[in-house]
């Protein structure tokens, strides 16, 4: 028998019922007065502490069965029960085959649907203030509420801000009662909050990683650009240096080639001029020589003619003189 029912019977207005459900510790002071306590019914709650049996009390089968039940109830009350209702998916015992109509018939026969309907009509979900605050405090928008020490007031303020319909929840002394679907709604809000926070954290971390990657890429690009520009500048300087050297070499080579050609032409011209001038000089010399020889010849011829004429004149004169 549950302790609440025993307490209700103890609080009855009938003295006989109150006397029947007195505990042993309540009946102990009345023993010296001479009253018999054997006629009273000794009823204990479902969560009693197992005491050692009196020496005069005999361990009957019923007493052992009651002690076993007490131990079983203590074990059950110390755990969190989860009841599982097993149903047959099909009557043929085939794997991966589900018969919806047969499953609904079993649920109706077992009273599961009616239990769910009754549970949904009331407040099937319940949370203690401590557990509710620990789980759903992330949904608080006003941070000043979290500084309050009264957990009941914090939970009321939080629920009134999240659930607009006051009929969907009720506040008890130690627990909060919810109608069907409200805990799922709160879980959805909590999941959305965590999802938004996760997205924000992921966005921040990814942004930080991308900025870090961008900075590294930018630094690497700057280093590559610096080395590339240095390489291109050195390559351009080397190209300009080689171009200048090639220009100087070409200038010197062309100058040398033109100079050699000029010197060859000049030498040829000088040679031609010398040979031409020599030819003209020799021609003039031959002409002068011929004129000189002609003059000499003329002189000797004229001298011979003169001597000849002189000899004729002399002979004629002599002849003339002889006559």
From TrEMBL:
Report the sequence similarity comment from the record: Belongs to the TRAFAC class myosin-kinesin ATPase superfamily. Myosin family.
Under Gene Ontology molecular function, one entry of this record is:
actin filament binding
Q: Which GO terms describe its cellular component?
A: cytoplasm; membrane; myosin complex
Q: Which intervals of the chain are annotated as region Actin-binding?
A: 69-91
The UniProt entry, under InterPro entries, shows: IQ_motif_EF-hand-BS, Kinesin_motor_dom_sf, Myosin_head_motor_dom-like, P-loop_NTPase
Matching entries from Pfam families are given as: IQ, Myosin_head
Q: What residues does the Myosin motor domain cover?
A: 1-191
* Entry keyword set: Actin-binding, ATP-binding, Coiled coil, Motor protein, Myosin, Nucleotide-binding, Repeat
Highest taxon in the source lineage: Eukaryota
Keyword Nucleotide-binding listed? The answer is yes
Q: Does the keyword ATP-binding apply?
A: yes
| Residues annotated as signal peptide | none
Q: Name one GO biological process term.
A: actin filament organization
The organism named in the record is Micrurus corallinus (Brazilian coral snake)
Name used for this protein in its record = Myosin motor domain-containing protein
């Amino acid at each position: 028998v549950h302790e609440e029912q025993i307490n209700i019977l103890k609080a009855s207005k009938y003295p006989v019922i109150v006397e029947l459900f007195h505990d042993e510790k309540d009946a102990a002071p009345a023993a010296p007065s001479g009253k018999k306590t054997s006629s009273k019914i000794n009823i204990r709650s479902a969560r009693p502490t197992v005491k050692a049996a009196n020496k005069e009390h005999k361990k009957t089968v019923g007493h052992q069965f009651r002690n076993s039940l007490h131990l079983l109830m203590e074990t059950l009350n110390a755990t969190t029960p989860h009841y599982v209702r097993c149903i047959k998916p099909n009557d043929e015992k085939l794997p991966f085959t589900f018969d919806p109509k047969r499953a609904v018939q079993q649920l109706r026969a077992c009273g599961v649907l009616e239990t769910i309907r009754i549970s949904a009509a009331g407040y099937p979900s319940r949370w203690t203030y401590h557990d509710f605050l620990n789980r759903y405090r992330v949904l608080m928008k006003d941070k000043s509420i979290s500084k309050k020490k009264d957990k009941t007031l914090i939970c009321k303020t939080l629920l009134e801000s999240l659930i607009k319909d006051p009929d969907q929840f009720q506040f008890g002394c130690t627990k909060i009662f919810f109608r069907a679907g409200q805990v799922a709604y709160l879980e959805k809000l909590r999941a959305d909050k965590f999802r938004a926070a996760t997205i924000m954290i992921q966005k921040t971390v990814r942004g930080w990683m991308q900025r870090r990657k961008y900075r590294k890429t930018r630094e690497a690009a700057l280093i590559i650009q610096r080395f590339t520009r240095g390489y291109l500048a050195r390559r351009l300087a080397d190209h300009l240096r080689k171009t200048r050297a090639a220009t100087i070499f070409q200038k010197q080579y062309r100058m040398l080639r033109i100079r050699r050609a000029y010197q060859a032409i000049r030498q040829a011209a000088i040679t031609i001029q010398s040979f031409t001038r020599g030819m003209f000089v020799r021609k003039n010399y031959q002409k002068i020589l011929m004129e000189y020889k002609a003059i000499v010849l003329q002189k000797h011829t004229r001298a011979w003619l003169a001597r000849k004429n002189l000899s004729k004149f002399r002979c004629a004169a002599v002849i003339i003189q002889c006559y």
